[in-house]
Amino acid sequence: MKRLYISLMTILMSVVVSTKLFAQTNLPYYGDCLQIQLKVCSNDDNENTSGTKSDDPKSGNKPSFSPKKAPTIGQKGNVIYLYGQFGGLTLDLLSGGTQVYSALVPAGADEIVLPDDLSGIYELQLNDGSFVYSCEVEF
Fold first, then answer.
1. What are phi and psi of 124, to 5 degrees?
2. CA-to-CA distance for 95 and 97, rounded, in angstroms?
3. Contact yes or no for 104/87 (Cβ under 8 A)
4. What is the pLDDT tens value at each position of the chain, 139 positions in all?
5. What pLDDT is stored for residue 58 in this prediction?
6. Whole-angstrom Cα distance, residue 68 to residue 47?
7. Taking the CB of residue 124, how many other CB atoms lie within 10 A of it?
8. Rounded to an integer, what is the distance from CA 134 to the centroid of its chain?
9. Confidence (pLDDT) at 28
């Protein structure tokens, strides 16, 4: 009886663990592409940093929020998979701080095909006007 109980508990735990892992990766499967976790930085240029009160209702003490969840993208060759996670944004590729490629990405885009002549390591930045999502990519 004890063996049966241990076996059932083992099966139950493996089902729970695999379900949790699957639930965390709710992204569509695009074959063997590389999954990349993006870093998120605020792009808020309207912050009142002078310490003086302004007539702008957005100025002053801002409430604290929990951090924005960093999205995951995919890469396979020169194709970047966005999985339709973003509204309209700008994609930039930087090499040594210099912009080498830029493109406007329509809202809900699933993938972006980059030029074939890219080689090396670049910083990829996705800017939606409020946040900049970035990572390193290698072609």
1. -95, 130
2. 5
3. no
4. 777 777 767 777 666 555 444 444 455 555 676 777 788 887 764 333 333 344 555 555 566 666 677 788 999 999 999 888 888 899 999 999 999 999 999 988 889 999 999 999 999 999 988 889 999 999 9
5. 55
6. 18
7. 21
8. 8
9. 52
Q: Tell me the two tokens of residue 16.
A: 């729970």
Name the pairing type of β-strands 121-127 and 89-95.
antiparallel
pLDDT at 41: 83
For every residue of 9-55, DSSP letters joined together read HHHHHHHHHHHHHHHH--SPP-SSPEEEEPEEEE--TT---SSS--S
Among 6, 68, 1, CA closest to 37 = 68
| Sign of the dihedral defined by the CA atoms of residues 134, 49, 56, 59, in that order | positive
Tokens 């990519």: give the residue.
Answer: 137
Q: Measured between alpha carbons, how far is 120 from 107 in angstroms, rounded to an integer?
A: 28
Q: Are 102 and 92 in contact (CB under 8 A)?
A: yes
User: Which residue type occupies 107?
Assistant: A
